[in-house]
């Protein structure tokens, strides 16, 4: 076999991602059509929540699944952007063309110094320092009453466009979130399959090797951190616009833990893993909380079982099953 | 003003000692087993609840102490034997997730068994008096708590530095042997060390109950502060944990009294600063 | 002629433990230098210091005469230095091709440099051909035999287009047949590449190296041509009866 043969063989391989995307495109089309087919309002609300948290989990997955950085403070950026849009709307303008990009920008800018410092640490210490920074954000939101409203939270003014109120109805917001989610998911996908994304995977697999291969690893880690924070910020903006309210709990460590759980349950490192995880966790939460108050117990057991039996989450299990069916082995 | 300062210092010292008892187990467990046990806070609360039940049945504070310590030790050793042991060869994240899972499970089980109310254990009559020193009255119980903390620090330090078992523990802290190839005795030692850590956490829970109260959520509150102490003191470093406990305990107490808005902000900032100072200038990774 | 690699009084301590003490090493361009010594002598530590992976406690490192003390690994890479690791540092969950792709892509980077897919693919294929791994291009590293993983370790270093190549025990853990194959690959490398190799297999050392440096307990015990080292009593003592 010559080099040319191998190259030809590699290039003729079927493009697997196409299948994934046709499935996702179908699902998005179905969700877009659903309100016309009589999807009840409360289901729309649930879908909105799932999409917002899917986006937050997808953004964390850039760090956790692709770069191998376990951030325990991702909710900080969700919270920062969530507060930023409220503050901007109150003090500057409620026009969504101003508030939305500006709030996301604030989250991204905050991620630069926080990331620059945090990526100097690795493993458990990275986890602890991201946790520390996120808790500082939480405490600031909780205590800085004149700006954030403190523990009472803050009312976020409704969005306008050129002076006219928009996104006022549940249905219009549903379409808005669906569109933003689709665009962001596509962007994130493009990022992780790009050369940049593959470099991140290399860092996850072997940081010393990447450094020896001439990559300035810290620069890539910082870029991944900022990308994650930016899309986390988009999720935070959507959350604030949906609830028209933001409270310090959005940045609390339990929120960071919850997103982490979503990514891990769904399958870190698989693109759709976080979406699966967010969907399952939120559905479980909604259904179970009407039967039992011991929601933590269920979550804890899920954790223990998954980490003991299925490290790669549900997406990993599905992939294993799929490969098994095709007889390719593990 | 002076009274206030003295009172806050004593409160801070008491809090520091409780933190140290918690950090002792966590740090030792990490130093030797390389496991960060996020369920450690649950053992504090568990000890407090065990003690509460024993007190309700016997009205003896001593019985409460014994039941709490032994109970937490047994649950800890069961956890180590049944589950954790398999995870020594896994990476940090897996261990963190596993123990976090157990923390959640323990929290809800305790909620089921003891409810959501705030409980407390009264200070035993023998210790409920106050001691008169230099014109101020100090609650005797608090003074004794500080004594217990210092005594345990000295005892553990001596045990680790001066005994054969201690030498073995030091050796395995310094040189992380492949755990899968370990002999039976080391495995057993691991179980005991883990049990010792959870026992001390349980003890802290019952001793602290008259001061902190007993309520759901306390487990995660103490876990977070303990993690900060252990990180600031250096994972696996017993004397580091002692001094860090003093630092954090006093800083948080003074902070809460003087400038409540910023108290916890300062504590988290302190942890971040310590982490960064230690990491600064160090090479990014160490491999052959 | 300026030395390709030179260390000047390089020392490394871990607390009170001295892993390297005042190591002077000078390797001419194109030279093939073996570094031998018993376990724990400090050979890998020296490599990590030269490659920028660890800072020395004291002393300096020069590459082609330029002081590179304290430089990052990527800066040394930019000067043409590549290395293999004693313990494999591979991208375990990626395929062989993807591994080498990451290594080659480091050269095809930059905002304004347009990347030619064809040129990159040809380069990857060429590297794999040189280490006999073309047939396994689609295999996930985690599923490969250990000997093949060692070959890939070499491939990743070669993909860096090295002028200076550091090889840390490339044949460790290989069968005799695999060792022979690896030796042939190393001998076939272009002579312009300066090679530093740490190796316990003396057959490999003597068939490949021009000169040999012996480290023991962090200090240079001997430094000379293959012939000089073979006749050195001190060296035989350190190796305790192992025939040289
Ligand atoms: N991070 C570290 N902390 C403490 N000691 C270390 C560290 N890294 C290496 N050492 C010690 O430095 C000494 C030299 O190690 P090194 O890996 O360089 O030896 P080597 O010559 O490559 O041995 P081998 O033939 O076994 O590969 C050893 O005694 C090792 O225990
Ligand atoms: Mg070595």
Summary, kept brief:
The complex is a heterotrimer of chains A (330), B (288) and C (244). Chain A has a two-stranded antiparallel ribbon with strand order 1-4. In chain A, strands 2-3 form a two-stranded antiparallel sheet.
What descriptive keywords fit this protein?
A: 330 residues; mainly alpha; two-stranded antiparallel sheet; 15 helices; 4 strands; 74% helix; C: 244 residues; Rossmann fold; 2 domains; 6-stranded mixed β-sheet; 9 helices; binds adenosine-5'-triphosphate; binds magnesium ion; Amino acid/amide ABC transporter membrane protein 1, HAAT family (TC 3.A.1.4.-) (chain B); cell membrane (chain B); transmembrane (chain B)
Describe the protein in words:
The complex is a heterotrimer of chains A (330), B (288) and C (244). By secondary structure, chain A is an all-alpha fold. Chain A is 74% helix and 2% strand. Chain A has 15 helices and four strands. Chain B is mostly helical and 288 residues long. Chain B is 74% helix and 3% strand. Chain C contains nine helices and ten strands. The model of chain C has no long low-confidence stretch (mean pLDDT 91). Chains in contact: A-B, A-C, B-C. The complex binds adenosine-5'-triphosphate and magnesium ion (MG).
Stated plainly, the CATH topology of chain B is called: ABC transporter involved in vitamin B12 uptake, BtuC
Average predicted local confidence, pLDDT of chain A: 92
Strand runs of chain A, count = 4
* Order of strands, widest sheet of chain A: 1-4
CATH top level of chain B? Mainly Alpha
3D shape of chain A: globular
Sum up the overall morphology of chain B in one term: globular
| Percent of sequence in beta strands of chain B | under 5%
**Attached small molecules:** adenosine-5'-triphosphate, magnesium ion
Task: Give the radius of gyration of chain A.
Answer: 21 Å
Beta-strand content estimate of chain A? under 5%
Keywords (chain C): ATP-binding, Nucleotide-binding, Transport
Domain ABC transporter (chain C): 5-242
Pfam family, one (chain C): ABC_tran
Protein name (chain C): ABC-type branched-chain amino acid transport system, ATPase component
């Amino acid at each position: 076999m010559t080099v040319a043969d191998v190259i030809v063989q590699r290039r003729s391989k079927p493009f697997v991602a196409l299948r994934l995307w046709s499935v996702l495109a179908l699902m998005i089309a179905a969700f877009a059509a659903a309100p016309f087919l009589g999807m009840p309002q409360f289901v729309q609300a649930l879908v909105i929540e799932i999409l917002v948290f899917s986006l937050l989990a997808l953004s964390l997955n850039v760090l956790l699944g692709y770069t191998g950085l376990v951030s325990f403070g991702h909710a900080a950026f969700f919270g920062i952007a969530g507060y930023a849009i409220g503050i901007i709307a109150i003090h500057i303008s409620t026009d969504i063309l101003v508030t939305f990009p500006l709030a996301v920008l604030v989250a991204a800018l905050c991620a630069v110094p926080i990331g620059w410092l945090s990526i100097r640490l690795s493993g458990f210490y990275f986890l602890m320092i991201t946790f520390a920074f996120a808790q500082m954000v939480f405490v600031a939101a909780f205590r800085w009453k004149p700006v954030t409203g403190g523990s009472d939270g803050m009312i976020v003014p409704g969005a306008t466009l050129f002076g006219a109120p928009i996104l006022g109805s549940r249905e219009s917001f549903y379409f808005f979130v669906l569109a933003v989610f689709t665009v962001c998911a596509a962007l994130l996908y493009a990022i992780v399959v790009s050369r940049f994304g593959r470099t991140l995977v290399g860092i996850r697999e072997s940081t010393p090797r990447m450094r020896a291969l001439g990559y300035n690893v810290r620069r890539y880690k910082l870029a991944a951190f900022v990308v994650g924070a930016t899309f986390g910020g988009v999720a935070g903006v959507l959350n604030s616009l949906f609830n028209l309210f933001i409270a310090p709990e959005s940045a609390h460590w339990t929120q960071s833990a919850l997103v982490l759980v979503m990514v891990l349950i769904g399958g870190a490192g698989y693109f759709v893993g976080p979406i699966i995880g967010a969907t399952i966790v939120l559905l479980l939460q909604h259904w179970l909380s009407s039967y039992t108050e011991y929601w933590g117990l269920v979550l804890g057991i899920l954790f223990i079982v998954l980490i003991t039996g299925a490290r790669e989450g549900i997406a990993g299990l599905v992939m294993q099953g799929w490969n098994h069916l095709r007889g390719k082995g593990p | 003003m002076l009274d206030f300062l003295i009172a806050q210092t004593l409160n801070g010292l008491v809090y520091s000692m409780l933190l140290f008892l918690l950090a002792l187990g966590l740090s030792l467990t990490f130093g030797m087993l390389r496991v960060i046990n996020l369920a450690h806070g649950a053992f504090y609360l568990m000890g407090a609840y065990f003690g509460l039940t024993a007190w309700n049945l016997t009205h003896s504070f001593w019985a409460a102490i014994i039941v709490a310590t032994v109970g937490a030790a047994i649950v800890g050793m069961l956890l180590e034997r049944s589950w954790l042991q398999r995870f020594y060869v896994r990476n940090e994240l897996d261990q963190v997730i596993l123990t976090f899972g157990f923390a959640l499970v323990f929290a809800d089980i305790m909620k089921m068994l003891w409810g959501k109310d705030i409980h407390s254990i009264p200070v035993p009559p023998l210790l409920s008096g106050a001691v008169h020193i230099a014109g101020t009255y100090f609650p005797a119980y608090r003074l004794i708590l500080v004594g217990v903390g210092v005594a345990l620090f000295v005892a553990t330090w001596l045990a680790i530095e001066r005994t054969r078992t201690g030498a073995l523990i030091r050796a395995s802290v310094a040189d992380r042997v492949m755990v899968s190839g370990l002999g039976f005795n080391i495995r057993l030692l691991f179980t005991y060390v883990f049990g010792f850590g959870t026992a001390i956490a349980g003890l802290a829970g019952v001793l602290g109950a008259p001061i902190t109260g007993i309520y759901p959520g306390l487990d995660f509150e103490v876990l977070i502060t303990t993690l900060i102490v252990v990180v600031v003191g250096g994972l696996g470093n017993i004397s580091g944990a002692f001094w860090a406990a003093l630092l954090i305990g006093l800083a948080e107490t003074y902070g809460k009294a003087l400038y409540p808005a910023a108290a916890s902000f300062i504590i988290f900032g302190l942890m971040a600063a310590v982490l960064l100072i230690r990491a600064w200038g160090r090479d990014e990774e160490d491999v052959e | 002629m300026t030395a390709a690699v030179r260390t000047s009084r390089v020392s490394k301590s871990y607390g009170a433990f001295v892993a390297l003490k005042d190591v002077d090493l000078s390797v001419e361009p194109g030279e093939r230098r073996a570094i031998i010594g018993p376990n724990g002598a400090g050979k890998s530590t020296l490599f990590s210091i030269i490659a920028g992976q660890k800072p020395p406690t004291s002393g300096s490192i020069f590459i082609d005469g330029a002081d590179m003390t304290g430089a990052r690994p990527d800066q040394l890479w930019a000067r043409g230095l590549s290395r293999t690791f004693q313990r494999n540092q591979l991208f375990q969950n990626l395929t062989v091709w993807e591994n080498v792709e990451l290594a080659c892509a480091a050269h095809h980077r930059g905002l304004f440099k347009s990347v030619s897919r064809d040129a990159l693919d040809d380069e990857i294929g060429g590297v794999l051909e040189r280490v006999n791994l073309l047939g396994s291009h689609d295999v996930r590293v985690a599923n490969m035999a250990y000997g093949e993983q060692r070959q890939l370790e070499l491939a990743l270093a070669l993909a860096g287009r090295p002028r200076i190549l550091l090889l840390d025990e490339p044949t460790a853990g290989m069968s005799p047949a695999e060792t022979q194959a690896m030796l042939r690959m190393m001998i076939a490398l272009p002579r312009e590449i300066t090679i530093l190799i740490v190796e316990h297999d003396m057959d490999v050392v003597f068939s490949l190296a021009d000169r040999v440096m012996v480290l023991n307990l962090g200090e240079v015990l001997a430094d000379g041509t293959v012939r000089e080292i073979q006749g050195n009593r001190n060296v035989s003592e350190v190796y305790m009866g192992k025939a040289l």
